[in-house]
Amino acid sequence: MPLPPKPNPAPSPQQPRATIAVKAKAPSKVVERFFAPCPRGLETVLADELAALDADRIEITDGGVGFSGAFDLGQRACLWSRVASRVLWQLGEAEYRVEDDIYRIARDIDWPHLFAAHHTIRVETNAIRSPLKSLDFVTLKVKDAIVDKFRAAMNSRPSVDTSMPDMRIFVFLTEYKATIYLDLAGEALFKRGYRREGLAAPLRENLAAGMLLLKGWKGDRPLLDAMCGSGTILTEAALIATNTAPGLQRSFSFEKLRFFDASQFRAIRESSPNNIGRLEPGLLFGNDVNPAAIDTTERHLHNVVGATALKGIRLTNQRAETLTRPAENGLLLSNPPYGERMDELATLREWYPQLGAWMKRELAGWTVCFITADRDMPSGLGFKPGKKTPLYNGALDCRLFEFQMYSGSKREPKEKPQGGMPMEHRPGHRERN
Q1: In terms of pTM, does the model score above 0.90?
Q2: 397-401 contact pairs (CB < 8 A, 24+)
Q3: Among 61, 295, 349, 356, fewest CB within 10 Å belongs to which?
Q4: Among 122-131, 265-274, 362-371, which is the least confidently predicted range?
Q5: What is the pLDDT of residues 206-261, one digit of tens each?
Q6: Which residues pair with 61 in a beta bridge?
Q7: 131: number of Cβ within 10 Å
Q8: Averaged pLDDT, 323-334
């Protein structure tokens, strides 16, 4: 990092200090270090994404992936990652013992060369096994360091905005080390930009995309969401199938950095390959019992693929257990109701056997996946899951249950002698392993 300009002597009350002009400087290091948090359980999927973007030194941790590369790699990760929640650019890291050590780490970062004083900031601190008693005090010290750095360089300072800041600064503490990051994304990356009405979805977009990638879905087989809600899974599937960058319809915090090259990033956007409007018909199928949910799903799909491709997506409005199979085989991926209240849960437990009977009747040859916080769902359906993957939908601890549906039964029938007595009941019979 370049050295900060030396502060002017203290001005007299009659002559206030003039603002010092700061010239933007691009990152000087050839290799930058980044960290991308993601929904827990999807770390390996995110690592594969970053490897495809030519990231180096990929390190998987609980809840995210560290990686290295040129600064523009961070920009491309914001644009292209379907799974990351944010992309954090590492600005400083050192050992600490007390809060003043962290203040000095933050003070050594050349903040005025990164963004202008009129931009608002928010500082957030997280820790694992830190000996410090108050993370709020650490947050305050880092904010003070940023403000002091600006005051030393110019006659202005950034203000704090905790709801919609221009710049988000993250501090992460381990037992001995403090790391300071600048968030390149701004708003969380699961906010793609196609959800125009501003309503929160029960399933986050990066979790929906991550589940599709976890199950190996790349637009090469039919996909059914039998309880599609606002269409998050279907819309993410449309982005995957058309190879469309998930961040194509939104902006990012790095566009407000002093050294941001708008023409260069415009070229990155325009060179992003996609097949928008060329979605294969008969690939995506959605259903929901609520007609308003179908209307919302249509709007979101229209915002992503357009009116022409939308005609090739079949959306129906009926109970899931009354559907007929849309294709001979494919993937069903749904986020059924969780039943957060006891009366809701009781209703769900009565419904599960009907859903299980439908799966057996209609979905032979399909892979069926449900994400739910209800651990008893498989027993209610009457099937043992082939896989169960722990995932978090926000703070909600869930499981992604997978069922491979076969025609008939996989269980071999018991051998019977001609006399009709079951073989296992005959004297001296031993069960085969």
Answers
A1: no
A2: 397/373, 398/371, 398/372, 398/373, 399/371, 399/372, 399/373, 399/375, 400/41, 400/211, 400/214, 400/369, 400/370, 400/371, 401/369, 401/370, 401/371, 401/372, 401/377
A3: 61
A4: 265-274
A5: 999 999 999 999 999 999 999 999 999 999 999 999 999 999 999 999 999 999 99
A6: 64
A7: 11
A8: 97
Rounded mean pLDDT, 269-298: 88
Whole-number pLDDT of residue 197: 73
**SS3 state of residue 7:** coil
Predicted confidence (pLDDT) at residue 359 exceeds the cutoff of 80? yes
Lookup result for tokens 């991550």: 210
Tell me the average pLDDT of the chain. Answer: 88
Distance from C-alpha of 132 to C-alpha of 142, rounded to nearest angstrom: 14
* Strand-strand pairing, 314-316 and 284-287: parallel
- Structure tokens, 4: 């900060």
Instruction: Note the helical H segments in 126-203.
Output: 135-153
Nearest-10 Cα torsion for 130, 132, 133, 139: -100
Q: Where are the alpha helices (DSSP H) in 64-191?
A: 71-80, 99-107, 135-153
Average confidence (pLDDT) over 303-320: 94
- Tens digits of residue pLDDT in 70-114: 999 999 999 999 999 999 999 999 999 999 999 999 999 999 999
299/309 Cα distance (integer angstroms):
13
% of the chain beyond a pLDDT of 70: 85
Please, what is the end-to-end C-alpha distance for the chain in angstroms? 67
- Sketch out the chain's domains with CATH numbers: 32-183 (3.30.2130.30), 205-242+277-404 (3.40.50.150)
Contact 139, 125 (CB under 8 A): yes
Return d(Cα 150, Cα 129) in angstroms, integer: 32
- Confirm if 207 and 400 have CB atoms less than 8 A apart: no
Instruction: Find the helix packing angle between 232-241 and 291-310, rounded to 10°.
Output: 10
Residue 165 contacts by C-beta under 8 Å, 6 or more apart in sequence? 120, 121, 122
Q: Provide CB contacts within 8 A for 139, sequence distance 6+.
A: 123, 124, 125, 171
